[in-house]
Specification:
Chain lengths: 113, 109
C-alpha cells in the first residue's frame, strides 16, 4: 500500500466554521490531489499540487484552499464550511509525469451540520 | 461539463460470466485511461490502464479495450467473481485524473 495517511478520518463540524483536512505521504511523490466523492457525481478534483508551494485549482475549487509547504503534506481548508461540502474527501499522490496511476488515501468523511 | 462518462450506474452479473463496464470520453487529448475499483469505506485502488496508442491491455482476468475513433473504452472481467462486487471508476489522464461517475458491479453467486 502506498504510504498515504488522511486525517481526520471522520469529522462533524458546524456551518460557518473553518476546517482543515490533512494528507500526509511517505513516498516522496511530486503530485498530490484532493478529490471529493458524492453520490451521482463520482470523484471530482478540488485542487492539486505539482510541487512544494505549487498548487492549482480543479473543477470544484470554490470554497476551498490548499497549501503545500513540504513535499509530504497537502492541506485542504474549507474556509467557512457549508452543508454542500458534506462529502467524502480523498487525497491521491502520483510519482512523476511518466507514471500513470495515482494512489489514494482511505478518505475523510466530513459532515457539516 | 463531464469529460468522462459512465452511463450505467449499476450492473449485475452472475458468477463465472463476463462483466463489461463501459466508459466514454470527450477529450481526444487524454493520453492514458485507467480503471479503479472501490469498496465501501475505502479509497479507490488502481486496477488497470491503457495508453491512448494501444487498443487492448490485459492483466489476468481484466482486459481493457480502447476504441479511439469512438472515444470509448470498456473493462472486461472474465470470469466474474463475487469479490469483484464494487464500484468501478473510469478515469482519463489530463493534468490530473478525470473520473466518471462510477458503475456499481454486483456479482451474484
Amino acid at each position: 500500500d502506498a504510504g498515504i495517511t488522511q486525517s481526520p478520518r471522520h469529522k462533524v463540524t458546524e456551518t460557518g466554521t473553518p476546517v482543515t483536512l490533512r494528507c500526509h505521504q511517505t513516498e516522496n511523490h511530486r503530485y498530490m490531489y484532493w478529490y471529493r466523492q458524492d453520490p451521482g457525481h463520482g470523484l471530482r478534483l478540488i485542487h492539486y499540487s505539482y510541487g512544494v508551494k505549487d498548487t492549482d485549482k480543479g473543477e470544484v475549487s470554490d470554497g476551498y484552499s490548499v497549501s503545500r509547504s513540504k513535499t509530504e503534506d497537502f492541506l485542504l481548508t474549507l474556509e467557512s464550511a457549508t452543508s454542500s461540502q458534506t462529502s467524502v474527501y480523498f487525497c491521491a499522490i502520483r510519482d512523476s509525469e511518466m507514471n500513470t496511476e495515482a494512489f489514494f488515501g482511505q478518505g475523510t468523511r466530513l459532515t457539516v451540520v | 461539463d463531464q469529460q468522462v462518462k459512465q452511463n450505467s450506474p449499476s450492473l449485475s452479473v452472475q458468477e463465472g460470466r463476463i462483466s463489461i463496464l463501459n466508459c466514454d470520453y470527450t477529450n481526444s487529448m487524454f493520453d492514458y485511461f485507467l480503471w479503479y475499483k472501490k469498496y465501501p469505506a475505502e479509497g479507490p485502488t488502481f486496477l488497470i490502464s491503457i495508453s491512448s496508442i494501444k487498443d487492448k491491455n490485459e492483466d489476468g482476468r481484466f482486459t481493457v479495450f480502447l476504441n479511439k475513433s469512438a472515444k470509448h473504452l470498456s473493462l472486461h472481467i472474465v470470469p466474474s467473481q463475487p469479490g469483484d462486487s464494487a464500484v468501478y471508476f473510469c478515469a482519463a489522464r489530463g493534468y490530473a485524473l478525470n473520473f466518471g461517475k462510477g458503475t456499481s458491479l454486483l456479482v451474484t453467486p
